Amino acid sequence: MATSRPLVIGNWKMNLDFVEAVHVGQQIGVMLKNRPAEHTDVVVAPPFVDLRSVTSIVQSERIAVSVGAQHVSAHENGAHTGEVSVSMLKRLGVEWVIVGHSERRTMYAMSDEVVGATLRAVLRGGLRAVLCVGEDLSVRDRDGHDDFVRDQLVSALRGLDEGFNELITVAYEPIWAIGTGLSASNEQVQHMMTHIREVLTGLSIEGCRVLYGGSVNAENAEGLLVAGGVDGFLVGGASLRAESFLAVVHASNDCYALKR
Ligand code: PGA
User: Fold this and answer.
1) Is pLDDT above 60 for 1?
2) Domain ranges in the chain?
3) Fold of the domain spanning 7-259
């Protein structure tokens, strides 16, 4: 297992309207009060329209969770119909932003260039960026995953001011493992964690947490942490219910507590 404090992020994607979001947020709050996860950083990333409600509950009920957005515009303001800016998120109390999720890259034509610009906008605004990288099955089948992920990392992170390093998290999410129930194996993940950390060192980015995402649940979390060497998880499907999300949080927390 990696040595840093685990980070578990729930990516709700386009699920849970604001009424449902309040409900799940409150459940997470109650459950974390009954059983704290003091060794783990926990983030939820609801849809934009839920952010205000979720940050309000987290603040008023002092829930040990930070709030993230799933996407943001690379632009500061102006004629960008349908977009939301970093400063708008900051005003809401959002601290994290997922950047370049594969669903944005493939379904909404988010190019490497736009991913890089978005990442810079997030960092300049002082928010924490979770840069998502990962190959699809055709790339994996031709054994191109290492090069593919390296290129994505270099394209997004090259030339960044070192002062931003502490705001960066990387999430390795192989597209073939997202929402399929078929997680990457511990060996595949371990190999990629080593590779990503080497690429980051080459880019002079030290101390950055590297997460895994793709069909993570309470059953596979421990193996991925211990044998896969991840620093935590980006969780989709299992984050939509408080019980299954906190099961991943507690699995991470217990692993880290035992390791110390
Ligand atoms: P999943 O999604 O856990 O449902 O596979 C992960 C993600 O896309 O972040």
Assistant:
1) no
2) 7-259
3) TIM Barrel (3.20.20)
> pLDDT-based confidence at 2, cuts 50/70/90?
low
State the distance from the centre of ligand 1 to the C-alpha of 79, rounded, in angstroms: 32
Dist. CA 217 → ligand 1 center (Å): 10
Report the C-alpha gap between 50 and 45 in whole angstroms. Answer: 9
Question: Residue 106 C-alpha to ligand 1 middle, in angstroms?
Answer: 15
Report how far residue 200's alpha carbon sits from residue 183's, in angstroms, rounded to the nearest whole number.
24
Number of helices (H), then strands (E), belonging to the chain: the values are 10, 8
Residue 81 pLDDT more than 80?
A: yes
Ligand 1 binding pocket includes 173 (Cβ within 6 Å): yes
173 is catalytic: yes
Angle at 58 between CA 124 and CA 256, to 5 degrees: 80
Q: Which helix (H) or strand (E) holds 233?
A: strand 232-235
Pairing of the two strands 168-172 and 209-213 = parallel
User: 0.85 cut: is pTM over it?
Assistant: yes
Quick check: CB of 236 below 6 Å from ligand 1?
yes
Residue 101 bears catalytic tag: yes
Residue nearest to atom 6 of ligand 1 (CA): 236
